Request: fold
Amino acid sequence: MGTQQLETVPEPKYWHLKTVLSEALDSEFSVGEILPNERDLAARFGVARATLRQALEQLELEGRLQRRRGVGTTVAPPRVGVSVGGEQHAWPGTAADAWQAVDCAEAVPPTAVAEILDTLHGEQVHVVRRSRVSHGQPVAAELLYIPAASVPALSAIDAPSGAARARAVLRELQRLDLEGQDRSVELGSARAEDAKELDRLPGAPVLVVTTRFFAQGRAAAVSLATYRADTCRLTFDASGDVEIHHGTERRAS
Reply:
């Protein structure tokens, strides 16, 4: 990557620098290659390190770079297409489901989730944790919130803890007649737990897909799936609708 001083430009310096860096990534670097450290890059381009970080963060958000724990900043591979449409009117855990059960616990859900599920204040629900892998790398982590009312016969099932317990909860959930589901997608930042599971740094850009499953005239389960924004390109099937919401809405998180 050659030395290039940035002249005065009408656009923000970090944005112009992002363009210059993007061109260099195309011509001088290969996928997986580690970039020089921030001090060297800032010196070569004659910018402050804060400006450089802004440009690098933007390139990471666009999927051009990856910050890898203990490695540094590397050139990212092309984004992989990950379908989030799936089969309509299908509960989590069905045969065509790409997710793998990891664990299950009982906990009080976040306030926004509790409001969707219409559970009592402080009421615990089943929290199923699942993961998704694509092309050999972790691409998403999910928390699936299921109230006891959705799996009333679960206590009669002999299911140990861990992944087996999670699968038992999902099997019981599938006894309900699924009436419909909806999804919303938002840009967010990785929480510490999600970052560790996805091999990302806390605060890294992610895509949060919230899915509500309806049965018996109510929300019977809520899924919060966190996808890596640097490697994932979310796709929807032909029946998936895109909704645009204006104004501020509280997200279930």
